[in-house]
Amino acid sequence: MTRNAVTRSRLFPTNGYARQVEAWKPIVDVVHEKGGIFFYQFGHIGRVSMTGPNDQAPISPKNLTTQEIHIVVDYFRVAARNAIEAVYERCSKRQNRRVWWFYRETLHIRVDKVGIRLSPFGYFMGSGDSNPGALGRYMAESLNEYKILHCHVLEPRIKSEDEKDDHLHSLVPMKKTFKGTFISACGYDREDGNNVVAECRTNLVAYGRLFLANLDFPKRFELIAPLNKYDTTTFYTHDPIVGYTDYPFFETTI
């Protein structure tokens, strides 16, 4: 378990991005002081969006024009530059809510410091594919050309919040195809996370909801300590601001 941090923020070219850049700098400094490394993850919200940057009309849900494709590419370019300005060492392009294959043209930074996050098995907002396994392998093979740092993929193992299905699909063919570091995520606990790495089904396991609810997550895993239960009603909320830094630390729960 490392102390590296993965984060997301508003670094796309909007009215507030300059404040976001400045706000993240002291946070990055603290992570550096503790010997950690930042991976910054950014992605276009796509068909989930209600408005575009600067309160413009969203570009989806609809097919993009050629001109709009270039606009989206430039959003990623600007976001990558803003991330560099905020002193992040790594950038990670999030899974496709828009066109993942633009990432090399978009970033114009060293590709050995760039990762990508994909969800070929996802069906969110009607974005599913008829052959997600083949799609995942195709994407992994295509990404090898660019020698990027890592490929972070969501496992097709969640049926509901508290129910997992480990047998319908597997990321192993995609992992075998991709030549860089392969990261799996989606519903892992300590035991099955360790098992999937030991069985060479992935190189690393990423944790999201559990980490959000347990800010001392690495320590809890190290001590095999009990975990706080996350509250999904506070996810992606901004008013009131709860569920981000107010979960109890391990020392205060015993």
Structure characterization notes:
The protein is of the alpha/beta class and 254 residues long. The chain has a domain at 1-104. It has 8 helices and 9 strands. The strands form 2 sheets. Strands 1-2-3-4-5-8-9 form a 7-stranded parallel β-sheet. Helix 1 links the parallel strand 1 (5-7) and strand 2 (38-42). The protein is globular, with a radius of gyration of 18 Å. The relative contact order is 0.09. Pfam families: Oxidored_FMN (PF00724). Its EC number is 1.3.1.42. This is 12-oxophytodienoate reductase.
Count of β-strands: 9
Strand percent estimate:
5-15%
Q: What summary fits the major beta sheet?
A: 7 strands, parallel
Number of helices: 8
Described by the principal axes of the CA atoms, the overall outline is: globular
Subunit organisation of the chains: single chain
Portion of residues within helices: 25-40%
Structure classification: alpha/beta
- As a whole number of angstroms, the C-alpha radius of gyration is 18 Å
The end-to-end distance, rounded to whole angstroms, is 23 Å
> What's the pLDDT, averaged over the residues?
76
The H-and-E topology, N to C, reads as: EHEHEHEHEEEHEHEHH
Strand order of the largest sheet: 1-2-3-4-5-8-9
**Low-pLDDT windows of residues:** 1-10, 95-109
Name some characteristics of this structure.
254 residues, alpha/beta, seven-stranded parallel sheet, two-stranded antiparallel sheet, 14% strand, globular, disordered N terminus
Topology:
Layout: E1 5-7, H1 17-33, E2 38-42, H2 66-85, E3 90-93, H3 103-107, E4 114-118, H4 132-144, E5 150-154, E6 158-160, E7 163-164, H5 172-177, E8 181-185, H6 190-198, E9 204-206, H7 209-213, H8 217-223
Parallel strand pairs: 1-2, 2-3, 3-4, 4-5, 5-8, 8-9
Antiparallel strand pairs: 6-7
